[in-house]
Design brief:
Low-confidence stretches of chain B: 311-316
Radius of gyration of chain B: 20 Å
Number of strands of chain B: 2
Shape of chain B: globular
Mean pLDDT of chain A: 90
Structural class of chain A: alpha/beta
Shape of chain A: globular
Helix content of chain A: 25-40%
Order of helices and strands of chain B: HHHHHHEHHHHEHHHHH
CATH class of one domain in chain A: Alpha Beta
Oligomer: heterodimer
Strand order of the largest sheet of chain B: 1-2
Mean pLDDT of chain B: 88
CATH architecture of one domain in chain A: 3-Layer(aba) Sandwich
CATH topology of one domain in chain A: Rossmann fold
Strand order of the largest sheet of chain A: 6-7-8-3-9-10
Low-confidence stretches of chain A: none
Structural class of chain B: mainly alpha
Number of strands of chain A: 10
Number of helices of chain B: 15
Largest interface: A-B, 27 and 17 residues
């Protein structure tokens, strides 16, 4: 579904990604793990078009997407739920969700999608008229995820959806991600919580200093000594 | 019950707006001389202030380019007014301002905060000095005469531009485009994430706002009869609309309208009575309104209304 091939990305003169390649198949959950500053967010930003790679290619549903603008890539069905939620603070919950359906094809079906999103996050329906900034951290994360789903994406990229949440809410987030996959949405997931992430993901890539250092089935990576030492503290 | 209340309130405000418009449209029939001239000035300030808010209100980009677009409109009238009919050169004034806004916007709307404000203000100086240079060196005359149009025609032109602007502003606010503008103001990065073409939205809105500013400039130029770059690109026309919009409040469409009406009228009075002091008085009013009514008159009205409603509930 998504094929990233030998991507190099720079911030000015500083190279952040070095020949990164990654593949995601339909209806998979693929995890991207790595320490802070390894380039996980940079890779997501490159895929969603916020950054332009200096070389390499990215293909989504057999279409080249590297170098396209973010709004065009969003239109193709990639939804990027950024780290730190980035809501519209003085818009209501409902307005935030509606803005998520901004892309042309999603706007036409926004009422229907809204019902679906409310079914996944019943709490958001209760809070419909409230301003986004008045929500609690967990509710804000739900809203950010809901807004990401409003564009009816084929591929959802979550950037640390559990950061700053209480353990019980973290479980909730992982549960939602599983439900989304059952609904046929493909998922690329960045998480600090490596153990839990590898448990729900089918495959994973490990990013270190801007390079992919290992990849494979999550179950195999969980057994890998280097991973155990570096990320699981075992 | 609520629905009935709502619709009756809505039809009341539509009726009220219609009534005021009829009064304004018929004005030259019953009020002669000074009144239409004064109202033309007031409309001009309302147009500048609402146009400024149309762009800077939702996006949060502080534009000081108003005087540039205004001046471009004025000079368009000066160049084309003698050869072309009135509607044509006024629309041209708006369109040329829009084109300038498109070019400048595409170049500079990636600047944020104070940098954007400084650049847009620099634009005023740049165009004004380029024109001056060109007039002095190529034409060897400074300034030019503008075709004279009678006061009632100017009044009606301004009124039409005002109505067109209000309709445009109203529909933008309620459209998907308006939502996009608001989301850019609230969190531009998130707006890009959800698939809004942020550059396009900003630049198009900047150009729409410039269109009305330019058209107002082309109209008022015919009253001034003589313009030079210093008159046409007076930086006051960048600052006054901002002041008026802040004083009126940007939360509602009528905010900058009220602000501009009050300030334009105040200006007329102050200029005739305390010519040296009037900018000082403006400044003091601005300081006090920022300190005590940060959301402008609109904020004050809404607070007062809410207080009233709370009282009603309590008495019920």
């Amino acid at each position: 579904m998504l094929e990233v091939c030998n991507i190099d990305t720079f911030y000015g003169k500083i190279q952040a990604l070095w020949g990164v390649s990654l593949r995601i198949d339909e209806a998979e959950i693929v995890a991207l793990v790595g320490a802070n500053g390894a380039g996980k967010t940079t890779l997501l930003n490159t895929i969603s078009g916020l950054l332009c790679p200096a070389s390499g290619s990215a293909t989504f549903l057999d279409k080249r997407i590297d170098g396209l603008t973010p709004h065009y890539i969003a239109e193709l069905g990639i939804s990027h739920i950024p780290e730190g939620r980035r809501l519209f603070p003085v818009m209501s919950v409902r307005e935030n969700l509606e803005m998520g359906a901004y892309t042309y094809h999603a706007w036409k079906r926004k009422e229907e999608t809204l019902e679906e999103v409310y079914r996944v996050f019943p709490l958001l329906k209760e809070r419909e008229g409230q301003l986004a900034r008045t929500l609690s951290g967990g509710e804000q994360q739900m809203l950010a995820m809901g807004r990401g789903l409003m564009s009816r994406p084929r591929l959802c990229m979550f950037d640390e959806p559990s950061s700053g949440l209480a353990p019980r809410l973290v479980l909730e987030v992982f549960k939602v991600i599983k439900t989304l996959r059952e609904q046929g949405i493909t998922i690329l997931l960045i998480e600090q919580n490596v153990k839990r992430t590898l448990e729900i993901a089918d495959r994973a890539y490990v990013l270190e200093n801007g390079r992919i250092v290992s990849e494979g089935k999550s179950s195999e990576l969980l057994q890998n000594n280097h991973i155990k030492k570096a990320y699981l503290g075992l | 019950m609520d629905i009935i209340k709502f619709t009756s309130k809505k039809s009341f405000s539509i009726g009220f707006i219609g009534f005021v418009l009829v009064l304004l449209a018929a004005l030259p029939l019953y009020a002669k001389g000074y009144t239409p001239i004064l109202l033309t000035s007031i409309f001009m300030y309302v147009i500048l202030s609402v146009s400024w808010t149309l762009f800077s209100g939702p996006t949060g980009y502080m534009s000081l380019a108003t005087a540039a677009f205004f001046g471009v409109g004025i000079y368009t009238a000066a160049f084309l007014g003698k050869t072309l009919p009135l509607p044509v050169f006024i629309i041209s004034g708006g369109l040329i301002s829009s084109i300038v806004a498109l070019l400048v916007g595409a170049l500079t709307l990636r600047l944020r905060g104070i940098y954007f404000a400084i650049f847009t203000f620099g634009l005023v100086m740049l165009i004004s000095n380029l024109l001056l240079f060109w007039e002095l060196h190529a034409m060897e005359t400074r300034g030019r005469f503008v075709v004279i149009v009678d006061y009632n025609t100017i009044y009606y032109t301004m009124l039409i531009i005002f109505v067109a602007l209000m309709l445009t502003a109203y529909f933008i606010r309620r459209s998907k485009f308006g939502l996009a503008l608001q989301s850019i103001g609230e969190n531009e990065e998130a707006a890009a994430h959800i698939g809004i073409n942020v550059t396009l939205v900003k630049v198009v809105n900047f150009a729409v706002s410039a269109f009305f500013i330019g058209a107002a400039g082309a109209t008022i130029a015919t009253r001034w009869t003589y313009v030079d770059p210093y008159i046409a690109f007076n930086p006051l026309f960048s600052f006054l609309p901002v002041l008026m919009a802040i004083f009126g409040g940007m939360g509602q469409l009528y905010g900058p309208v009220i602000g501009a009406v009050i300030f334009a009228y105040l200006q007329e009075i102050l200029i005739t009575r305390f010519a040296e002091l009037y900018m000082l008085i403006f400044g003091v009013i601005l300081v006090f309104s920022i300190l005590y009514i940060p959301n402008g008159l609109v904020g004050l009205i809404q607070k007062w209304r809410k207080g009233g409603q709370a009282g009603e509930h309590a008495s019920n």
